[in-house]
């Protein structure tokens, strides 16, 4: 079948022409002139039809073999194959792939046999896509969308539907992609697709933690984190693979403070607010885990009151956080530093809320903010204030006003919003006073820093005066 003979009608409210970079049009025209067809495939087509920004463009080539493709595109700076097994090339940051089909050969995520052929048609290769809205193709030369699986209709209805169950189940990572894509787009999951994903549950254990981590990160950084997390809940993924999170589901809270519902409901509300504020990943992760210690600390009292004493403490929360994060390895992030930052933020998320009650007492606030900035490291006060705001906003019952902006202003004046106070008294000062480096150094510098955090030393000169008065024989 000649791929150019394949046509499809679009729904009435979808544009027939998608604005495409001129370079891409020229590349596609060159492929056509050589006797083939170049189509834009994947998420770019979907996002453009939805009116969303999209930078990554992937091209799939039909009707040309390797040698003819390389000859046709060499003037555009086509690289040698970057993935010889997959027949993938590069033009700058654009992926150019030969038409290919994939077959599962083993249990691992990477166990696939890939075949490329100029005889493969767009309809054939579109079947290896996960969801119908991702199987849409666009021909920028003819200004035409190719839709073989009713993807345009699903785009209109905001539905995620499997393209082909036989090929879908070959890649268990697609279960997590369902959740991350739903979070990003706000789409619902078609019932048969949900059932298919539930059948794939046992296969999730074969996925490398790096790939799972990437999808979780996409969920948390999406505009609708709760949507993806609810999908993981419905599929039973939280219960089977992430019990530390699952325990929050159904964990009751005090109805006076939390009429919004259980710990899980509160957490999802906090996460969605965090997304609306465009918090970065560390804060969103801390928001997910800020009440992870509550279920184990639940105590029912008289008059239907409920308490969760010390649920935020490191003694209670850190083991759960450690167990949860052990299942992840986030690329491009210092995972040890991330874990410590999250633990510290969770441990003090109640502290920052209580601090707003003392904003009229500058001495108490300043001392507390200085000490908090040190205790939080490698996290920052700015991150803690953001977490406090997320928690406070999601609490829909009785509560004091959270004055986050005033806390930020005060922390900025103290220069501790995103770092810790630098010591005024240093080892160099002690050496200049004739002291020899040794155990006494640490003791003196530690005492001086404590005085500084309490506001009793406010500059280098006062630090020297304190030293001379406190250690006159030195």
Short recap of the structure:
With about 475 residues, the chain is of the alpha+beta class.
Structure characteristics:
alpha+beta, Beta Polymerase, domain 2, Hypothetical protein af1432, 3 domains, two-stranded antiparallel sheet, 47% helix, metal ion binding
The main pleated sheet reads as:
6 strands, mixed
Residue stretches low in confidence (pLDDT < 50, at least 5 long) are: 1-13
Structural class label: alpha+beta
**What is the domain total for the residues?**
3
CATH architecture of the largest domain: Orthogonal Bundle
Fraction in helix: 40-55%
Domain tRNA nucleotidyltransferase/poly(A) polymerase RNA and SrmB- binding: 186-247
Domain HD: 264-356
Organism: Candidatus Berkelbacteria bacterium Licking1014_7
Protein name: tRNA nucleotidyltransferase (CCA-adding enzyme)
